[in-house]
Amino acid sequence: MTVQPDAATQSPKAQADLLFELFCTPEPLTEAAQKGMVRVAERLSAAESLRIPFQGGELQAYRFAGNGRGTVVLLHGWTGQAAVMTFFVEALVSEGFDVVALDFPGHGRSDGERLHVALGVAALHALHAVTGPWHGVVAHSFGGAVAFAGLSELVGDLPPLHYGRLVLIAAPCSMPRVFDTFARRHDLSPEATVYLKDHVKRLTGHPVEAFMGDAILKAHPLPTLVLHAPEDQEVLFLSAESFAAAGDHVTLHPLPGLGHRRILYARETMQATAAFLAS
């Protein structure tokens, strides 16, 4: 999808405003994806349902009980839901962890129609107030960007969140690169791209260039495991290599052949995640 024809005659700022709304609006699931989501959602029946007040509405989260070893939070990617992260539950509960899976705003059963990193971080704070402290966070794709941003002081007046360990699965490292890719995909001019990125500063108080996962992990050196398929075409392996360059506290574990989404359901992914969080 490119900028709508009538938008092409608008000013660069107006084009950027239109594209930012598109950027923050999750695409509806295809019929096949909806059927698949219904199947995996059956796994949520074993969880306690949590409704958490958030910005005039509610967030949906699910809690699976372990034996009190600590709480691990699962964060899905763009257009995902808590249900797609439930494949991690069995391995984590068997290690004694309580597991909490969140539907981000505008996803699953959470209220809202929009989502961006700042809104995701605010949602994490609301979740943490009810379910914290957290032993660890496991995050896929867009959820990974929210997870590392949550460690920082970059989102308005929100203080940094604290969790003992972090697992990033096929996560983007550079938010500037995410915006540049989106702008190219929609044929946005360089001038309009600058306006598009300015929305980040308006929302957070900081420029998009500040949202670099490797720099944030370097400044907040918690033990981190990065799982990524080298052939991933949605989030390039370059992101994983950048995370790994943040320091010795980051471990890169390539998982060839699993792509961007199948990596979530691979046995090796579950085993590596549970072992890392339990170590």
What is the secondary structure topology, with strand pairs?
Layout: H1 12-23, H2 31-41, E1 48-54, E2 57-64, E3 71-75, H3 89-94, E4 98-103, H4 117-131, E5 134-140, H5 142-150, E6 163-169, H6 175-185, H7 190-204, H8 213-219, E7 224-228, H9 238-244, E8 250-254, H10 267-278
Parallel strand pairs: 3-4, 3-5, 5-6, 6-7, 7-8
Antiparallel strand pairs: 1-2, 2-4
Helix pairs in contact: 1-7, 4-5
Organism: Asticcacaulis excentricus (strain ATCC 15261 / DSM 4724 / KCTC 12464 / NCIMB 9791 / VKM B-1370 / CB 48)
Pfam families: Hydrolase_4
Domain Serine aminopeptidase S33: 69-176
Provide structural commentary.
InterPro entries: AB_hydrolase_1, AB_hydrolase_fold, AB_hydrolase_sf, Hydrolase_4. The chain has an eight-stranded mixed beta sheet, with helices on both faces. Helices cover 38% and strands 18% of the residues. The chain has one domain (5-25, 52-278): Rossmann fold, CATH 3.40.50.1820. The longest helix has 15 residues, at 117-131. It has helices spanning 12-23, 31-41, 89-94, 117-131, 142-150, 175-185, 190-204, 213-219, 238-244, 267-278; strands at 48-54, 57-64, 71-75, 98-103, 134-140, 163-169, 224-228, 250-254. With 279 residues, it is of the alpha/beta class. The protein has ten helices and eight strands. α1 (12-23) packs across α7 (190-204) and α4 packs across α5. It is globular and about 60 Å long.
